[in-house]
Amino acid sequence: MMRQYELVERVKRYNPATDEALLNRAYVYAMRAHGTQKRASGDPFFAHPLEVAAILTDLRLDDATIVAAVLHDTVEDTAATLEEIGRLFSPEIRALVDGLTKLKRLDLVSKRAVQGENFRKLLLAVAEDVRVLLVKLADRLHNMRTLGFMKPEKRTRIAEETLDIYAPLAGRMGMQELRDELEDLSLQNLKPEVYATLAKRLEAFSETSKSLIKTIEKDLTARLAAQGIPAEVKGRLKKPYSIWSKMERKSVAFEQLSDIVGFRIVVGTTPQCYGALGVVHTSWPTVPGRYKDYISTPKQNDYRSIHTTVIGPKRQRVELQIRTHAMDEIAEYGIAAHALYKEEGEREDGESHPRLATESGAYQWLRRTIELLAEGDSPEEFLEHTKLELFQDQVFCFTPKGRLIALPRGATPIDFAYAVHTDVGNSAVGAKINGRMSPLLHELANGDEVEIARSDGASPPAAWESLVVTGKARAAIRRATRTAVRRQYAGLGRQILDRAFERAGKSFSDEKLRGALPRLARATPDDVFAAVGRGEMFSGDVVKAVYPDFKDNRSAGSPGSAQGGPDGAGRLSRKDQTIRLTFPEGSPERADGGAPDEGIPIRGVAGDLPVSFAPNGGAVPGDRIVGILTPGVGVTIYPIQSTALADFDNEPERWLDVRWDVEAGSNERFPARLMVESINEPGVLAQIAQVIADHDGNIDNVRMTRRTQDFTDIVIDLAVWDLKHLNAIVMELRAKRSVSRAERMNG
Ligand code: MN
């Protein structure tokens, strides 16, 4: 247990002007008050308030806070009274202990209303003096450090509450170090195996990367010194909890994490931060999209730093944070660091600091939150307001039975369904949000009540995998689609082969196919079906493998023949079109419909799915669009007004919510089809072509059919920038005397 003089020494180290007598009085008072009380560990109880005070000396807090920490459990747990404390110490210390005593009476239980009420009390107590919160957080930290002595249920409840409320609150107050420790301790208690595994891996990682970290530290320091920037460079491993939550969030394995080590460059002044950034960026290539300047735009909790990621000397990703000493202190200690600068003005780095804690951004947030309290919401509403504020990156939704489902921001009803149960996710076909039908890809908002419609035979479309935000949903979809997609491909492949053999006039059975398996280099007929369904193998090759003497006249180069020439598109059934798209020998709908990943700029579609436009009419930016998922084909984009969509009305699981992802000023063109009715007279086609050319439209194809003696119908496939562009062309065509009608066609 910490001795009396040790406590004084600790405070004196950062505050030479400390009131030693006051500290000694508090020590003796609390020691007498707690007497022979013991903690669950068997230690004398008095060790606890001393440890809490010690944590606060690390944050270099003032005498009143340290004394309040020493006394924090006396009023509730001993014969001590507030009056006595006010008399023996000071009204300020009395007020702090009063706040802490009120908090002590909170024993959070799992009921939401009670939790809300407690949280409200917590913030009310803090409202009077933010130092109450600092003592409370230190109190919680010490309790978490000694949680091992508690009964399992109690441990779980306290650890959950710490993760739920105290750790985010510490983060919100900018106290990163405290937050890290609270989170790690919670993980250690909630998931001991996970924690142990991660800790072991981190240790192994730290062993193997020790020399690399040293190399980078030295290299960076030298490069900075060469530019006249004195700097401290330190590499540090991420904490188990932050690694675990990243693995969960992104559903990746430890080995896939590229940012286990982060480097910090601490310099003297703000200009030196940018100087250091220049040195870093001219030394190594940067990783795009990873640069963030929280110096020019500080976070709400006053965090300031420059973040960037580069490809380091050994071709590995290196995450860097660049900041001054003062910024570093705020990043570590947050609102507690502001307390330090109370009496100080400018520091040696020439930067001014908030003179009072009340001026810090974190404290402003706290103030606003507390003002909300004063508006007298019910505890539940309050919890929703505040707890939700606290968890800016989370949304809280409910099942119809009132079960709370916490999800990361951006989550969809699909994520919700998987969070409830994997089976619910796999069979989800629709959702009601707050009683109204809603697309499964709608972004959920706080407080939404979500009801999932299920269909037993349903399986999740593969495209969902990239649309969901939770790791759980992603992993489950991957599992479910792997089997379902294969089954669908195989079904499609079988249909394609049935038809191919029929056209060839040859009989076909699994038995016959089995004989040809060695020639096709596949193990089972199912493998062949799946390969054909996926478009990896051509039906013609299968026919030839089964009937080696068969002559395929289509592959001999007569594309327009009988069954599937490009001009026949309009007469084919939907199935035939589907198949035609699958086969490379069918005419591509767009000349430029290249590789899927550099294909059509549509958001809401998995990167590995091929995307094509509706065969008759296309779609252009400005159109409201939907994607229809077809196994073996990918996603086909239809404008919402397309009549062809009626075909999919009974298959809601194939509908994808998609959006355009086209930058302004992009050169991308999109397919559209026009129907123009014109008067039969010489040169009319040239006139129409001129209008389109004048508007910078590209004509891909023109077909004319003389309808009557007087009129001709002209179908024009063209490529335009967007809907506005298309409409301008249509208007101009209509203005031509020789044009009696001009319409967009929506296949
Ligand atoms: Mn305590």
From TrEMBL:
<dbReference type="GO" id="GO:0005886">
    <property type="term" value="C:plasma membrane"/>
</dbReference>
<dbReference type="Pfam" id="PF13328">
    <property type="entry name" value="HD_4"/>
</dbReference>
<keyword id="KW-0418">Kinase</keyword>
<comment type="similarity">
    <text>Belongs to the relA/spoT family.</text>
</comment>
<protein>
    <recommendedName>
        <fullName>GTP pyrophosphokinase rsh</fullName>
        <ecNumber>2.7.6.5</ecNumber>
    </recommendedName>
</protein>
<dbReference type="InterPro" id="IPR012676">
    <property type="entry name" value="TGS-like"/>
</dbReference>
<dbReference type="GO" id="GO:0015949">
    <property type="term" value="P:nucleobase-containing small molecule interconversion"/>
</dbReference>
<dbReference type="InterPro" id="IPR012675">
    <property type="entry name" value="Beta-grasp_dom_sf"/>
</dbReference>
<keyword id="KW-0342">GTP-binding</keyword>
<dbReference type="GO" id="GO:0008893">
    <property type="term" value="F:guanosine-3',5'-bis(diphosphate) 3'-diphosphatase activity"/>
</dbReference>
<dbReference type="GO" id="GO:0008728">
    <property type="term" value="F:GTP diphosphokinase activity"/>
</dbReference>
<dbReference type="Pfam" id="PF02824">
    <property type="entry name" value="TGS"/>
</dbReference>
<feature type="domain" description="HD">
    <location>
        <begin position="45"/>
        <end position="144"/>
    </location>
</feature>
<dbReference type="GO" id="GO:0016301">
    <property type="term" value="F:kinase activity"/>
</dbReference>
<feature type="domain" description="ACT">
    <location>
        <begin position="673"/>
        <end position="747"/>
    </location>
</feature>
<feature type="region of interest" description="Disordered">
    <location>
        <begin position="581"/>
        <end position="600"/>
    </location>
</feature>
<dbReference type="InterPro" id="IPR033655">
    <property type="entry name" value="TGS_RelA/SpoT"/>
</dbReference>
<feature type="domain" description="TGS">
    <location>
        <begin position="393"/>
        <end position="454"/>
    </location>
</feature>
<feature type="region of interest" description="Disordered">
    <location>
        <begin position="552"/>
        <end position="575"/>
    </location>
</feature>
<dbReference type="Pfam" id="PF13291">
    <property type="entry name" value="ACT_4"/>
</dbReference>
<dbReference type="InterPro" id="IPR003607">
    <property type="entry name" value="HD/PDEase_dom"/>
</dbReference>
<dbReference type="InterPro" id="IPR004095">
    <property type="entry name" value="TGS"/>
</dbReference>
<dbReference type="InterPro" id="IPR007685">
    <property type="entry name" value="RelA_SpoT"/>
</dbReference>
<dbReference type="GO" id="GO:0005525">
    <property type="term" value="F:GTP binding"/>
</dbReference>
<keyword id="KW-0547">Nucleotide-binding</keyword>
<comment type="function">
    <text>In eubacteria ppGpp (guanosine 3'-diphosphate 5'-diphosphate) is a mediator of the stringent response that coordinates a variety of cellular activities in response to changes in nutritional abundance.</text>
</comment>
<dbReference type="InterPro" id="IPR043519">
    <property type="entry name" value="NT_sf"/>
</dbReference>
<dbReference type="Pfam" id="PF04607">
    <property type="entry name" value="RelA_SpoT"/>
</dbReference>
<dbReference type="InterPro" id="IPR006674">
    <property type="entry name" value="HD_domain"/>
</dbReference>
<dbReference type="InterPro" id="IPR045865">
    <property type="entry name" value="ACT-like_dom_sf"/>
</dbReference>
<dbReference type="InterPro" id="IPR002912">
    <property type="entry name" value="ACT_dom"/>
</dbReference>
<dbReference type="GO" id="GO:0042594">
    <property type="term" value="P:response to starvation"/>
</dbReference>
<dbReference type="Pfam" id="PF19296">
    <property type="entry name" value="RelA_AH_RIS"/>
</dbReference>
<dbReference type="GO" id="GO:0015969">
    <property type="term" value="P:guanosine tetraphosphate metabolic process"/>
</dbReference>
<dbReference type="InterPro" id="IPR045600">
    <property type="entry name" value="RelA/SpoT_AH_RIS"/>
</dbReference>
<dbReference type="InterPro" id="IPR004811">
    <property type="entry name" value="RelA/Spo_fam"/>
</dbReference>
<keyword id="KW-0808">Transferase</keyword>
